[in-house]
UniProtKB/TrEMBL annotation:
Keyword Ligase in record: no
Domain ABC transmembrane type-1 per the UniProt entry, residue ranges: 84-296
Domain of life: Bacteria
Bilayer-spanning residue ranges: 21-42, 88-109, 121-142, 170-191, 273-296
PROSITE patterns named among the record's database cross-references: ABC_TM1 (PS50928)
Family: Belongs to the binding-protein-dependent transport system permease family.
Membrane-topology descriptor: Multi-pass membrane protein
InterPro entries xref list: ABC_transporter_permease (IPR051393), MetI-like (IPR000515), MetI-like_sf (IPR035906)
Record keywords: Cell membrane, Membrane, Transmembrane, Transmembrane helix, Transport
PANTHER family: ABC TRANSPORTER PERMEASE PROTEIN (PTHR30193), INNER MEMBRANE ABC TRANSPORTER PERMEASE PROTEIN YCJO (PTHR30193:SF37)
One Pfam family it belongs to: BPD_transp_1
Protein name, per record: Sugar ABC transporter permease
Origin species: Streptomyces coacervatus
Length: 305
């Protein structure tokens, strides 16, 4: 007796071949963004890396100098190490003070305090301002001539030079930049807190954990993706700070940053494009070091989960 097998209910779908029109559309949708990314981001990046090993004023011939730019940067360029120190201070201030304060505000608003919508709008409002505008506002508030702070303190005879004193101005600028950074961090953490499963909090409460233990042992680890995003944004904001200090005193007299040194050397009177590119490469390596570390940690955490 011959065995019969039931026929399959459905036939296998044939793979649809792409027509020339499909290939053209995909080429436009994918090719144009890739070309723009190469032309705007990776092209200048690779060019800066190549130019960092040369001496060029932007007009004459390009001369290969090897690692001389980096050696001169570390040994014979006095503003370099103060700028590195200021960038590290900027990073620590945003990472250890501004970012935790933004998280604290997000937790308060998430708990449903009165007028939370109003607080959320007011705290987020500085995010829409550029750091250059924040710098101009800092001049109006902290200036020696009719500045708001000195007027309140009634220091007309001997006003405090908040922006001219090299021991004070870097701190004033970090506080002004944090005013904008806190609102951004608050919104990101608010979104993360809304996505946490309430059952996790209930289970922690049943196990006897108080609110503080529930947050640090359950809620905060659950927001790992948000923590990574906030960490990357904090590093980027700290290392790319430029316009706020340039708006105050062109990044001098205690406000030196690596981004300011790059601008001064590439488009300044010296036109040392190779030397300025070396500073840009240093900033690029430091930025990638932090960002890659954050991303690797996130990928490991996702794999473990």
């Amino acid at each position: 007796m011959a065995l019969t097998f039931p026929r399959r209910a459905g036939r296998r779908r044939r793979l649809r071949r792409f027509t020339r029109r499909d290939v053209a559309v995909l080429g436009l949708l994918l090719g144009i963004p890739v070309l723009l990314d190469i032309a705007i981001v990776w092209g200048p990046t690779l060019a800066s890396i190549g130019l960092s090993f040369t001496a060029w004023d932007g007009i004459g011939d390009i001369h290969w100098v090897g690692l001389d730019n980096y050696k001169n940067l570390a040994d014979n360029y006095p503003p370099f190490w103060p700028a590195v120190r200021h960038n590290v201070m900027w990073l620590l201030f945003l990472g250890l003070i501004a970012t935790p304060f933004g998280l604290f505000l997000a937790v308060l608003i998430d708990r449903g305090v009165r007028f939370s919508r109003f607080y959320q709008s007011v705290l987020y409002m500085p995010v829409v301002l550029s750091l250059a505008i924040v710098g101009f506002m800092a001049q109006l508030i902290l200036g020696t001539d009719q500045g708001v702070v000195n007027t309140i303190l009634n220091n007309h005879d001997d006003p405090i030079d908040w922006l001219g004193n090299s021991h004070l101005n870097i701190w004033m600028m970090m506080i002004a930049a944090s005013w904008r950074h806190v609102g951004y961090v608050m919104i990101l953490y608010l979104a993360g807190l809304k996505s946490v499963d309430p059952q996790l909090k209930e289970a922690a409460a049943i196990d006897g954990a108080n609110e503080r233990q529930t947050f640090f042992r359950v809620v905060f680890p659950t927001m790992r993706p948000v923590n990574v995003i906030v960490g990357v944004i904090t590093v980027i904001e700290a290392l790319r700070a430029f316009d706020i200090v340039y708006a105050v005193n062109k990044g001098r007299n205690g406000l030196e940053l690596l981004s300011v040194l790059i601008t001064d050397n590439i488009i300044g009177e010296a036109s040392r494009i190779g030397f300025g590119s070396a500073i840009a490469v240093v900033l690029l390596v430091v930025s990638l070091g932090f960002i890659v570390t954050f991303l690797v940690q996130e990928l490991r955490g996702a794999r473990d989960r």
